[in-house]
Structures are given as structure tokens and as C-alpha cells.
Amino acid sequence: MRNFEILFDQAEPSPTADPAYAPYGNLGFPPPYPDHPWIYANFVQSIDGIASFLGKHPTGGDISHSQEDKWLMDLLRAHADAIIMGLNTLIEETRAAPELNQGRGPVYRVQDPALREFRARMGKGRERVIFVTASARLDPQKYRVFDGDLVDAYVLTTKSREERLQTSGMRTIIAGESGFVDLQLAVRRLRQELGIKHLLCEGGPTLYGHMSRAGLIDEKFVTISPVEIGLLVPPEQQDQEPHDVQRGAPAHRPTTFTAPGFLPDNAPWWQWMSCRRVGDHEFNRYRRR
Ligand SMILES: NC(=O)c1ccc[n+]([C@@H]2O[C@H](COP(=O)([O-])OP(=O)(O)OC[C@H]3O[C@@H](n4cnc5c(N)ncnc54)[C@H](OP(=O)(O)O)[C@@H]3O)[C@@H](O)[C@H]2O)c1
């Protein structure tokens, strides 16, 4: 793996002088709020702002093709008390990788053993992954992440879905009565009941969009990969995967923000905190003003 070239960095110093930071340089975070975590997101996007090819190649890895981006994802996971993601990312990424864990999908833990040890040196407990869902249509047996040996997995949903999930023995967090999860209440619960101080939002674009719209994203790490993808699923991909798109009406690939947006007078502006480079990949960090 190559080292990151630091173009500029105005963020906090690292909390320790651990050698794990050597390839990247400083990485520090502000303290959490008294009643909710400091929430940072991580995405990779194409030059034209797309976050997924969809179909057979839906993942961020399909866009980044970068060992350093993968390592940075691990470094960001190492600093998090928990990861939060939308259920569709688990479903899509499981479907697209039948070879992974006998078709039972990814586990979303720190993959690099050296960074797992670093996480332990920082005094972080077991890794936790929280899946957000309104439908709660989920069979935990189908997903490796719910086996409970590698990470603690939770489902964040509403009261109306609680019973359905408890019969399957899953750890649940409830916020809101029905329909969409009350994300503001949810993050307060995560801080107060689970002690989560730093929360990493790994998307996908729908969950991220709703969290950003609710004013909950403090920071966003964005890798720009030197590839152009296009907004509309091309006809040749539709022909391969007719289940993904309706014929004659090409599906839209997501940007990193797939939720109702903002108006010019309430669109949030961000401070560009740092920029690094490895070859043709650009690694940015933005903090909401
Ligand atoms: N480029 C990258 O860095 C990156 C990162 C992550 C993901 N991805 C890709 O993005 C794609 C998935 O994105 P996505 O936007 O379709 O899915 P997503 O955000 O992972 O999941 C969307 C689902 O999450 C649940 N959800 C989200 N917000 C909710 C809320 N406030 N309350 C209740 N439930 C909520 C809903 O689940 P229910 O339908 O079950 O109610 C919703 O359908 C995949 O292809 C994935 O690989 C790319």
C-alpha cells in the first residue's frame, strides 16, 4: 500500500502517536455532543458523483479499485464505536457477492488485522453495526453479520416492527412509532443507552440523505475515484439484469445523497477540512458549518 500525500489538513491532531497513523498522517475527531454522537460518513464516488453502478457491481469497492481507500475505510471504522447503515446496502452487497461467506454477505468489520489491534489499543470495545429499516423484512439467518461472533449487529426500526424482530432474537433499537425511524431520537438513544460517542455512517445513499436532511451528519469523508460512470443505467446493463430496471425506463444510479434534498436557502454548506492524494484518487474530508 502507498502512503497518502497530504495536500492540506486543518483537522484535529490524532489522539495518540500510534504508528498505525503513519500511512495517512493525522486523524482526530472533536468530542461527541452531550446527548448524541459525533457522526461522520464515508463514501467513494466517481468523478461524476455516482455512488453505485447497481446490478452485479453495486459496492463502493467497484468504484474505488483502491487498496488505500479500503485501508482508509478500516481506519475510519477503527475510530467508530459503531457503524450505521441502511438495510439495502446489506441486501445489495450480499446479493452481488455469492462467493462471500457462502452467500451470506459481508460483515462490515475492520478487515486489516493491524488496524483491529490498533482499535483495541484505543480502548474501543466490540465492533457494532446498526442496520436501519422501516420494513424490518429481514431474516438474520441469511446474513453472516448477525451470527454474533465477529461483531454485535443491531436493527434500528420503529415500535410497529419490534415484535416481528424480537421473535427472531435480534438486538433491536426502537425509535419512532411506525414508518420511518425517528433518526434524531435514534442517535440520542445510541449515545445514552449504548454509549456510542463516535458513529460512522457508511450509507447507503438513502440512509445518508435522510440523516443529512435531519442535520445529523457532522462530517463526510469523500473519496473521488478517477472513473466516470453516468447517472442512467445503460441499456447493455439493463439487458443483463432485467430485474434491476424496468425496460424502457432506465434506472437512476444513486449519488451519495438519495433523499429529498434542500432549497437554496437551507442547503447546508461545508468546510473543506483536508485533502490527500494517492495516484489519481482524491481523499477529501468536509465538516458541516
Ligand atoms: N459508494 C459508496 O461509498 C457506497 C456506500 C454505501 C452503499 N453503497 C451502495 O449503495 C447501494 C444501496 O444504497 P440505498 O440508498 O439503496 O440503500 P441504503 O441507504 O443502504 O438502505 C435504504 C434502506 O434503509 C432503510 N432506511 C433508510 N433510512 C431510513 C429511515 N429514516 N427510517 C427507516 N428506514 C430507513 C430502508 O429500509 P427498508 O426498505 O427495509 O424499510 C431503506 O429502503 C448499494 O448498491 C450499496 O452497495 C455505496
Molecular structure report:
Helices cover 23% and strands 21% of the residues. It is an alpha/beta fold. The protein has a single domain (42-288), classed as Dihydrofolate Reductase, subunit A (3-Layer(aba) Sandwich), CATH 3.40.430. The protein has a ten-stranded mixed sheet, sandwiched between helices. Strand 9 and strand 10 (281-288) form a beta hairpin. The longest helix is centred in the first third of the chain and has 12 residues, at 67-78. The chain is globular and about 50 Å long. The relative contact order is 0.21. The mean pLDDT is 95. The chain binds NADP nicotinamide-adenine-dinucleotide phosphate. NADP nicotinamide-adenine-dinucleotide phosphate is lined by residues 43-44, 51-52, 58-60, 63, 85-89, 92-93, 132-135, 137, 180-181, 183, 202-207, 210, 254, 258.
Question: Layout of helices and strands, plus pairs?
Answer:
Layout: E1 5-9, E2 38-46, H1 60-64, H2 67-78, E3 82-86, H3 87-95, H4 113-121, E4 128-132, E5 152-157, H5 162-166, E6 171-174, H6 183-194, E7 198-201, H7 205-213, E8 219-225, H8 235-240, E9 270-278, E10 281-288
Parallel strand pairs: 2-7, 2-8, 3-4, 3-7, 4-5, 5-6
Antiparallel strand pairs: 1-9, 8-10, 9-10
The protein binds NADP nicotinamide-adenine-dinucleotide phosphate.
